[in-house]
Amino acid sequence: MYEQNCVPFAPSLIESMRSLGYSFSSAIADLIDNSISAKADEISILSEPSADPWMVIFDNGCGMSKDELYEAMRYGSKSPLDKRDSDDLGRFGLGLKAASLSQCRRLVVVSKKNNEISAYSWDLDFVIEKGAWVLKCFSDEEIKEYFYIDMLDKVRAGTYILLENFDRVKEGTNDINTTFNKNLNDMENHIALVFHRFIEEGLIIRLNGIKIVGRDPFLSSHPATQKKRESSFYINQEKITLKPYVLPHLSKLKQEDLVKLGGKERIRSEQGFYVYRNKRLIIWGTWFRLERKDELNKLARVRVDIPNSLDYMWAIDIKKSTASLPDIIKKNMFNAVYETVLNSEKVYTYRGRKEKNDKNIEVIWEKIKMRDGYRYTINRKIPQLRLLLETMESEQLKLLDSVIKGIEEAFPINALYVDMAKGAIEECNEEMEDVWAELQIQMDYVKSKGLHIIEYYKAFMNTEPYCNYEEIKKRIQEEIENNE
After folding, report:
1. Residue scoring higher pLDDT (168 or 106)
2. Bigger pLDDT: 44 vs 449
């Protein structure tokens, strides 16, 4: 037996590494990970529309010496098996290079530490020309030619990244400016969500000078958000924490709340677990097959915090954008699923009514348990119908009953489900005075027919929608007292 080195052919491998599956947004997020790991508290992303777009990512972190920067530019600079600092967002020693070059053909990194500035570049065309793993190195004079490089003069330490020649974007569009601007908008939304906990804790990320506002997917500061009991468990002596949330009903959300949630149409699709690795969002909008996505579940979300020491167990990939749930963890997460889903269903089941534990309340639609499920019928006991039953002829009553049955049978349950899933249902929130005016019309009819006024006032007080308005109930009580 004898040994022989088998060095990968640089031009082929470096091109192949571009196809790891990074999106534009996930690639830039991976670069931001490095800035956060370097203890930066301000990160600037700069880009200007042009026929040949470029991007600068600058941070005021600890920076790198020339030797440290050289190691950072090396493919596989760290082993994924190495023990990392507890707050380190890296893992594979590939992110800086793989993420950058997945989008562009030229990566330049300039770093400052201990008043020393050094720079290296991976240029794919240069590697192909040389046929080897050859970095470009730059003199101080050459470094001064880069866009916004003077930002390094204003900090004691920091790192500057320049991305040039976005060939992947160019190849897929006839309008580079429009496409690149769309990528920037998508990237901003992605960063606002993925790093929202860092932003909430004071990290400043700017895009072309404008601060990115974090997108809290739990609306944890909203007064109507339900925050459920936090729980934790240990796997291999490492702690995993679960915190369930139930979002407020759509009728309680303002436009700025919907923006944080990504819009009405994404509320249903993004229900489920939100897995954070060292406070950085890794994967979201999945129940890991512990529950199915359902319209009634769409307000349910569970925050999961995991340490980077369990990366191997969650099968987190290089892009830090996918993960799989280990069987050993599933049983510990079921209770959190059950609690959030149950409470999400309650928000919809009891929206606009008091819970049926108050037997005096008459709901308009009744849910009837059948052998294979449920059906919904109109409650014949509500006073609105009793008025007609007491004052109509028998033939008219038969016709009315036929009409009601037709309404029940034609209830568009499938269309309603689809429209709710799309967030296209508008709530009917009548003004209190309009509801009171409707009640007065019905009470005038009661009086004109010589029916018992107080009895009907009491019946309306305990019937939808009137029982949902405290002011209307107060007025009804006054009417009862005046007529006694």
Report:
1. 106
2. 44
Residue 82 pLDDT > 60: no
Q: Decide: 195 and 37 in contact? Cβ < 8 Å.
A: no
Provide the pLDDT for residue 234: 85
- Is pLDDT of 155 > 90? yes
3-state SS, the chain, equals: CCCCCCCCCHHHHHHHHHHCCCCHHHHHHHHHHHHHHCCCCEEEEECCCCCCCEEEEEECCCCCCHHHHHHHHCCCCCCCCCCCCCCCCCCCCCHHHHHHHCCCCEEEEEEEECCEEEEEEEEHHHHHHHCCCCCEECCHHHHCCCCCHHHHHHCCCEEEEEEECCHHHHHCCCCHHHHHHHHHHHHHHHHHHHCHHHHHCCCEEEECCEECCCCCCCCCCCCCCEECCCEEEEECCEEEEEEEEECCCHHHCCHHHHHHCCCHHHHCCCCEEEEEECCEEEEEEECCCCCCCCHHHCCEEEEEEECHHHHHHHCCCCCCCCCCCCHHHHHHHHHHHHHHHHHHHHHHHCCCCCCCCCCCCECCEEEEEECCEEEEEECCCCHHHHHHHHHCCHHHHHHHHHHHHHHHHCCCHHHHHHHHHCCCCCCCCCCHHHHHHHHHHHHHHHHHCCCCHHHHHHHHHCECCHHHCHHHHHHHHHHHHHHC
Q: Quote the CA–CA distance of 336 and 331 in Å, as a whole number.
A: 10
Closest CA to 108 of 60, 62, 148, 80: 148
